[in-house]
Amino acid sequence: MDSWLPHSLIRGKEQVGWQPSWGTAAASGNGTSGRAVVRDVLQPLGVASADTYFTECYRRYLVKTGASSRAAAMDRAYTPFATPRGLPPASLPRRPSDAALVRMALEEDCGDLLAQLRASGADVVVTLGQPAADVLADLLDVDRVALRRDPAYGRERRVRIADRTVPWLPLKHPGQRTSAGEEHHRQWADGLTR
Predict the structure, then answer these.
(1) Cβ atoms 136, 158 nearer than 8 A
(2) HSE toward the beta carbon, residue 144, CA cutoff 13 A
(3) Number of H helices and number of E strands within the chain?
(4) Segment 35-78, tens digit of pLDDT
(5) According to the model, what pLDDT value does residue 71 have?
(6) What is the pLDDT of residues 100-115, one digit of tens each?
(7) Which is more confident, 193 or 179?
(8) HSE value, Cβ hemisphere, 13 Å, CA-based, for 131
(9) d(CA 3, CA 20)
(10) Bridge partners of residue 157, in order along the sequence
(11) How many alpha carbons fall within 13 Å on the CB side of residue 172?
(12) ∠ CA(148), CA(150), CA(153), 5° rounding?
């Protein structure tokens, strides 16, 4: 589902008047989170990424703030590059609270996520992170699942999508890298192979 990246990259380069002397720019996939999805979710489930339909609950890129955030990285890397070249400052919207993010995703969805779920023909639905789980629960009118480090973590639920009932696995987002969360997720993955 990365087919939009090259077009987006080309358009972005055109918008800023990309100069060859600036170096190269290439699509990078979804970085460490994308690799973690393959390693920690798809591989334990025995599913190839090529056989996976990926989507986003909220389709605009938002940045977190803080010393090790993307916003800080943009300030460290982009600003010193952009300023002497007369490029505009980075201005990506900040990520709101989880509750606000869920509300925004539901308000702006207009039925698109349900249409994607139906069209995908997915045999299993996996949500990554509490906001994604909350959006799916609201869209499918099922009980909210609180992601906790307890025996219910990653437990399969059944959800109805159009005329089919499929398993739903609510899991942590791969960007949540606390040692306790990582260990709990490993226990979930190990439990799949028993």
Answers:
(1) no
(2) 12
(3) 8, 3
(4) 888 899 999 999 988 888 888 888 777 887 777 777 788 888 88
(5) 77
(6) 999 999 999 888 899 9
(7) 179
(8) 18
(9) 24
(10) 168
(11) 23
(12) 65
